[in-house]
Design a protein that fits this description.
Length: about 525
């Protein structure tokens, strides 16, 4: 009985001390003790690495939504897109009827050098068949170390040809498109902020300048970010020397202010940046810097609100902890990060759905109900901008919920539109290239016929997508535009797709109207009442 009383006393003392905040030393001791107890006394054999990995993941899950652990393979895949290159054979491909179909080859890349062409089908890589493989498996066979060789069995028409390809570094571009939207308006679409992004944009600007560009549209829709340094370098192109770009603050790190060091290449001319609810991180840094310095206008919908700074901590085995150490603030003092509850990542991940359900994505009035506590002022014109997470646009554009019918959604989701356009180009490539010598001629003259739409409908029915004629009629302009854009992309290059697709982009069209309306542009930039 005495032993039981002593045990209860110790247990009560332990529970009573649970509320006490542990020191770093006490927490470290407790964590190590728990690890040793599990590893030494658990009933079954354990994988030590797995135990430690799960412990790290669990610890990070109690913090903010962006602190994370990646194993060695995940770390490698995470860094490749931002480093701007990987080693492979240099093709863009799609999967059609279990076959690997070459959409295009990288100019000057390994496959182009040996004669592989768009329209070829890759049947085998070495001794391994690629037929019926998923995309991840195919990439695993095609990518490899620089200098390594692979024999590819290519089916061209009815003939099988063996090509020996020497893998090489393949650049991953940040600029998806750069073209003149009209005689004085340039357009650049940026998909990520990687090591070479600023150089790619500068190259695009030089080319557009030679074509007569006076004003510029930068498209950051769906751009989820990347390197802070790249966002800073881009902002510096458009701002004057000494202009603030972004600052970072954290309780355990030194505050940092990032100001421009020189006058930019393009400090004059109207500038519009297109954003939506998926524009995040470095995209928000650039948009916030342009907005707060009154250098240009933001058009679209409130951005994602990812304003936490992750510092990478590499581990000896190649894994990595990306720990949040600070928050990003725009030049006016707005915190880019949207609110979150520690350890409640599900709520955080549902934020975009919540925005749709509460009407923010479709109703401009939802943006006007902002408390004074979130009100800030731009640096030059002292116009009102708001914090609370993300970058609020100067000109709101609602989400199109009409033309995207369920029927259109199903065609896209099952890859029917992609499959149809690839087959169409495959069957008509020579004729199309002969008839349309350049992008301008294709853009002006090519039409998606009713017969082509019926072929698309029939292909959908093969995949059990029953045609809803009423919904088809509603989505027809969108479907025709997407089909034309995908065909144009396969004939020319990836950039040409956006020349077509932007014709049905509400955000692009509103931004294009604004940049060509000097009076409205200057009125919004001066801080007068916003329009929608």
């Amino acid at each position: 009985m005495k032993r039981i009383l002593i045990y209860l006393f110790v247990l009560a003392a332990t529970i009573g001390s649970a509320a006490k905040t542990l020191t770093i030393a006490e927490a470290d001791k407790k964590l190590r003790l728990a690890e040793q107890i599990i590893l030494n006394y658990y009933v079954d054999e354990l994988d030590n690495d797995e135990v430690v990995t799960e412990a790290i993941r669990s610890m990070l899950s109690t913090l903010d939504p962006h602190s994370a652990y990646t194993d060695p393979k995940e770390t490698e895949e995470l860094t490749k897109p931002l480093e701007g290159k990987f080693s492979g054979i240099g093709v863009a491909f799609n999967l059609i009827s279990d076959s690997v179909y070459v959409v295009s080859t990288v100019a000057g890349g390994p496959s182009e050098r040996v004669g592989i062409q768009a329209g070829d089908r890759i049947i085998m890589a070495g001794d391994s068949s690629l037929v019926g493989r998923d995309r991840t498996a195919v990439m695993g066979f095609l990518r490899g170390d620089k200098g390594s060789k692979v024999d590819l069995k290519i089916r061209r028409g009815k003939e099988d040809i063996i090509f020996r390809v020497t893998r090489d570094d393949i650049p991953i571009h940040s600029v998806d498109a750069a073209y003149m939207a009209d005689p004085t308006t340039g357009y650049i679409r940026i998909s990520r902020f990687a090591e070479d992004t600023a150089n790619e944009v500068l190259e695009a600007l030089v080319k557009l300048d030679k074509k007569g560009m006076k004003n510029l549209i930068i498209d950051l829709q769906d751009n989820t970010g990347g390197y802070l340094g790249s966002a800073y370098e881009l902002a510096e192109i458009f701002l004057h020397k000494g202009d603030p770009v972004v600052s970072t603050k954290g309780s355990r790190v030194k505050p940092m202010n990032y100001d421009t060091q020189r006058d930019g290449l393009m400090t004059e001319g109207r500038l519009v940046i297109l954003v939506n609810q998926f524009s995040a991180s470095a995209s928000e840094i650039l948009a916030g810097a342009i907005q707060d310095n009154d250098r240009g206008l933001i058009v679209g919908r409130r951005t994602f609100g990812k304003g936490l700074v992750q510092r990478p901590f590499p581990m000896p085995d190649g894994s990595m902890i990306r720990l949040t150490t600070a928050r990003y603030y725009t030049p006016s003092g707005r915190c880019i990060q949207k609110p979150y509850t520690k350890g409640r990542r599900d709520d955080y991940d549902h934020d975009i759905i919540d925005r749709f359900n509460n009407g923010e994505l479709t109703n401009a009035d939802s943006l006007r109900e902002m408390p004074d506590s979130l009100r800030f002022s731009t640096l030059r014109n002292k116009r009102a901008v708001y914090g609370g997470g993300g970058i609020q646009p100067d000109l709101f554009v609602p989400l199109d919920t009409v033309s995207r019918t369920d029927y259109y959604r199903d065609l896209v989701a099952k890859g029917v539109i992609n499959q149809y356009t690839l087959s169409y180009v495959d069957n008509n490539r020579a004729e199309l290239k002969k008839k349309y010598k350049n992008e301008d001629k294709f853009l002006k003259s090519f039409e998606v016929t009713d017969d082509m739409i019926e072929q698309l409908v029939a292909r959908g029915e093969q995949d059990s997508i029953v045609c809803n004629r009423e919904q088809l009629a509603i989505s027809l302009p969108t479907i025709k535009c997407v089909v034309k854009g995908l065909i144009m992309r396969d004939i020319f290059d990836d950039s040409s797709y956006y020349r077509v697709a932007n014709q049905i982009s509400d955000i692009f069209n509103r931004g294009f109207e604004l940049i060509n309306n000097k009076e409205e542009y200057e009125r919004l930039l001066s801080g007068q009442q916003q329009t929608h």
